[in-house]
Structure formats: structure tokens, C-alpha cells
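Appendix B. Raw example, untouched.
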Amino acid sequence: MVFSANAGALLADASWIPADADVVKLETYFHTTVIQRERFPVGHGFSMFRLRKNHIGAGGYLISRKAARDLLLVTADINVAVDNLIFDPAFAISTGKTIYQLVPALCAQERFVGAKLPSLLAEDRDAAWAASGLAAERKKPVMARIRREAWRMARWAADFCRLRRQIVVPLGPVEAGD
């Protein structure tokens, strides 16, 4: 993990964490996600926003006791990557949870910020993906692509009306300032 230069200052005091938070995502995966427009400043150059779309990556997050308990109960029956389980609305564990995203992010996995350290999970995940047969690239029919584009525009309009916005969560500065 690569941490923002301000990580220590922010994490030294937990008073900024909202009482209603089930999960606070500290990490960015540098993929587009959707957050609520309402901003909650937390100090040291960071703000929090309600996360409204999946934003995978479980390298850095805070989780409440209740959410951790719920997660343990669910994982007794299924075997899914923890980042999907927590941050993907397709799974019931994240439905109804109050999940916040820290912006800019406090940390990111090194492989996304230029470091050359290999992931210990990547090979296993890639092999499982290839073995599932889902990895084969298939070109979608024209009508399917048109429907996908129409659906994307409808989602954008709905997000706009619900005071949400798309964002690629940036990583906070990684070198200490003067």
C-alpha cells in the first residue's frame, strides 16, 4: 500500500468517523464510481462522501463492529473476494449499509501508483477467471451496445437528479510537505 503523506495525522484521531458509518473506504482503485454530492470535511485536506456505486478494492477501509459481524456471518456460507462482498451492491451484505468514501483517498495499492511489486492474489484470480470461461472476449451485437449506451445515459441522468456525481477518486499527496 502507498499512503498519503497526511494519513498519520488523519488516523491519529478517530473523532471524524461518523457514528452512522458502517464502512469508510480509505482506498482508491482509480476506477469511476458514484458518490453523493454532499461533502463532509474531516480535516487534513480530506472529505467524505456517501458511496453510491461499487468501488472495489479492500486494501484500506474502516469497518464498524456490526458490519464486521454481519460480514463474518455471510462469509461462513460463501467464498467471494472481500472487496466485492463489501463494496458491490449486488451482494446483500452491502445493501442498506452506510458506506463513505474518503476523498482524496488515504491509500492505494502500489500496483496502481507505479510501483512494481506483484500482487499475491492476482495470479489466482486471473487463473480462476480464465478457468470460468468468462475471460474470452466476445464482441457484443450492435443492439446490445446501443442498449448499454442508452442505459449508461439514463444512469447518468438519474445520478444527476439524485444529486450524485461520478468520480475517479484521487490519491492524496504521497510525499510529506515542507
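End of appendix B.
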